[in-house]
Every structure is written in C-alpha cells, then in structure tokens.
Amino acid sequence: MRAHFIGDLLVQDEYSLTGDSLHHLVNVIRIELDEELLLLNGNGLMIKTKVSASSKRNLTLKFLSSSQSEKMNQLDLVMGMPKREALELSLKQSVELGIGKVFLIKSAYSQIKFPETERTQSLLISALEQSNAPFLPEVIKKEWNTISWDHYKSLVLMDSQTDKSELLPKDVRLAGPVLLIVGPEGGFSHEERSFLHSLPHVKILKLPTPIMRTPTALAAGAGILWQTLLD
Fold this sequence. Notes:
Layout: E1 3-5, E2 14-17, H1 19-28, E3 36-40, E4 45-54, E5 59-68, E6 75-80, H2 84-96, E7 101-105, H3 117-131, E8 138-142, E9 154-158, E10 178-182, H4 190-197, E11 202-205, H5 214-230
Parallel strand pairs: 1-3, 6-7, 6-10, 7-8, 9-10, 9-11
Antiparallel strand pairs: 2-5, 3-4, 4-5
C-alpha cells in the first residue's frame, strides 16, 4: 500500500492534504480516487485512509482504520560513517531493518562530515514511506567514548579483519537491547579495533565472505541478530 508521512498525525474522520504533499501524491505518485493510502507518523501510529476527493488545491482522505505499533527497542546501531552514497543507503536500510537508534561516528577512516539534519530526515522519511515502516530511527552524532555501552545487554561487532578464529556461535541467543557495530569502507583503525575488542561482553561477528561494504555488513548483521532476538 502507498504510504505518506505526517509528523503531527492524529486520528480524525477526514484529512485534507495541500502544498508539497498534494503535489507529490497527485503529480508524482499519481494517486487515484478511491485508492487507499496509509498515513504514518514515524512513531508507531498507522492510519488507513481512502481518497474521497481530489482537486488542484487539496486531496481529501477518508478515515478507514487505525493501529498503534509497539516499539521493541531491541536493536540499535553504531556506524563509523562511510562515503556519502553508502551512508545514505545505510540510513534507509536502518528504517527497513527496524533499527531504533543510529549512532553516527566520524571514525578514523571516515571521509565525510556529519550529514545535515534536514537531509538525513528526508532520507529516513522516504524509506519509511517506501517500506510502510511504523517507526523512524533516531539518528545521533556521537564519539566512541560518549556512547553508553553498558546500557546494552549484548554488543556485536562486525569485524572482517579480526585475528580471532571464533565466530558468533550459531546457537547463541542474545538478550535485548543489542547494539550492532559496523565500520566505514576502510574498516577500523588499530586503536578503534583495540578499543572495541576491549568492551565488556562484546561478541565478534566475522562472516566467511569477502570484505563487505558498510550497507551490506549492516543488512547481514541485522538479519542475523534479529533471528537470535526473535527465536
């Protein structure tokens, strides 16, 4: 179902969309009369509506039903920022993968500055509408030593260059909340890896694959962790 983000969304009998929302839905999406549209606020509220009228000035939606999703708060992400294209894809994936918080780190091998808040929010909303996700992740700029590591019951580090022979055990069962850690294209510096490997209870996840791009590592790691959390 097509979806549209409204930050201050409330349950009501009818909705009237104008301005940029109207232009996008009518001229870009080309939504039609009687077509259903899912309204999302990024905080769990999902309202199913139907287009009841359309004009050059507004789009009228009729309320059909609503639901409120419960946020699980089980999986967060620490990401050493990769190049812009990979970073933007990773942010979109964080929406689709149900990540609660994304901590952005300008790591030793990060080659870009922190993204602008407006650009980041636009990317997240776009991913939310495309995936019908109920929640927007919270994106937070951090440094390695300012993250509350002890808040998490499990820390999982994606590290393809580790000297350790052990992998994340196949039968491991992780308790939430879990924090997934991935690096930029160049990986982690020696100092960063030493710090991350020294964190209490950190588990190293090394897959039998070539070195992965940051978005690939994020998707692979999150998929494995969700399986352990939901089993």
